[in-house]
Amino acid sequence: MAATSLQTSNTFTAARVQFKNPPQKASLGSVSFPSHYLHKKGLVVESGKRAHAVTVMASSSEMQVDVSLSPRVNSVKPSKTVAITDQATALAQAGVPVIRLAAGEPDFDTPAVIAEAGINAIREGFTRYTPNAGTMEIRSAICHKLKEENGISYTPDQILVSNGAKQSILQAMIAVCSPGDEVIIPAPFWVSYPEIARLADATPVILPTKISENFLLDPKLLESKLTEKSRLMILCSPSNPTGSVYPKELLEQIAKIVAKHPRLLVLSDEIYEHIIYAPATHTSFASLPGMWQRTLTVNGFSKAFAMTGWRLGYIAGPKHFVAACNKIQSQSTSGASSISQKAGVAALGLGYAGGEAVSTMVKAFRERRDFLVKSFGELDGVKISEPQGAFYLFIDFSSYYGSEAEGFGKIKNSESLCRYLLDKAQVALVPGDAFGDDTCIRIAYAESLTTLQAAVERIKKALVQLRPAVPV
């Protein structure tokens, strides 16, 4: 147990953190990596067991402080993608030549027209609070976009602009879920879906999919798992982490099942809709017959427009639900950045599906995808479902589990394989268990083709030292 003591005479003069039996590996979130990396150039991250009390010594008196946390918070796991990204950044800053393929962040700069709109907002003094739901200008622009590109009609009071799509998802779950409700989540899933459900006092129900079926949800499995407790189903297309795209025909089958359950709503996460590779096409779930009133559509600007740091997303849906999300936001962050909203209006003004600026990025992503699929397809025992969208490759490396790596130990699962690749290849990837499928590893190809070529070379060189433990 870690004990933290603050010692002083009249004022606090020193702080000391003490650990008994310090761990051999540095830990970040729920992912452990070799500690020698973090010791390089003075970087040390260590953790012990959770402290249940802090002893504060002031003068001659002692006071015990209860530092216990809410059961809701204790039920939530930290994000592995954030943890690994932070880890890789720290290593790079310490001089370790790590190739970082963990974060879902485009390597492109925000298009100049969008950036200039943000700069102009500052110059023109557009730096004050906006309405909680967002300016009328951006909400009207979002309504126009949803009508023209997605075939779904909304009015500005059915739109809520937030500080990123993640906030929109959190607020939606808190708004519609009650304790004991179930949130249906197909796996592999974005790491935050189950944890946000837990924050909303709901129970995540995970429905597995198969790589042989392109990680698409089986309607029969869905129908068998729905109960009177089923409140919300999450669909993400194109998908993080698989890049799978739901064809319209499959969505129509799912919609017919949803229609049979009056309490069931659908949260359609469409953040990657513009990063899609022909002949695949995007279908908004709310555009299907009878689904408008059952669907909360979440989208944003971070992925397609390379605006991750601008923190701008939105939710669209029936006024009753959006008003509830608006109320939550009014008591937490209030409105999104005024500057980002001006930039968002400019982004939506680039043309259908982002115009040439977005199509140029998508062309580069497709080239990178094709390179990675070909390169890893040359490895024995590796299974790949070719992504139809987004910028992720979710590869089945489970044939390497059980192998022994000299100087490292046994490769037991996706996390140990990722640790091995960080150690031997100096490439940061995200283990599949974070997404609900331990057989796979996620590679984010939001980096230059040159960087990806170097990463593949390093990964292949490290894997050569392992013999597949499972017959192919």
UniProtKB/TrEMBL annotation:
The keyword Transferase applies. GO terms for molecular function: aspartate-prephenate aminotransferase activity; glutamate-prephenate aminotransferase activity; L-aspartate:2-oxoglutarate aminotransferase activity; pyridoxal phosphate binding. Keywords: Aminotransferase, Pyridoxal phosphate, Transferase. Pathway: Amino-acid biosynthesis; L-phenylalanine biosynthesis; L-arogenate from prephenate (L-Asp route): step 1/1; Amino-acid biosynthesis; L-phenylalanine biosynthesis; L-arogenate from prephenate (L-Glu route): step 1/1. Its cofactor is pyridoxal 5'-phosphate. SUPFAM superfamilies: PLP-dependent transferases. Residues 97-459 form the Aminotransferase class I/classII large domain. One of its GO terms (biological process) is aromatic amino acid family biosynthetic process, prephenate pathway. It comes from the Eukaryota. InterPro entries: Aminotransferase_I/II_large, AspAT/PAT-like, NHTrfase_class1_PyrdxlP-BS, PyrdxlP-dep_Trfase, PyrdxlP-dep_Trfase_major, PyrdxlP-dep_Trfase_small. Belongs to the class-I pyridoxal-phosphate-dependent aminotransferase family. This is Bifunctional aspartate aminotransferase and glutamate/aspartate-prephenate aminotransferase. It comes from Acer negundo (Box elder).
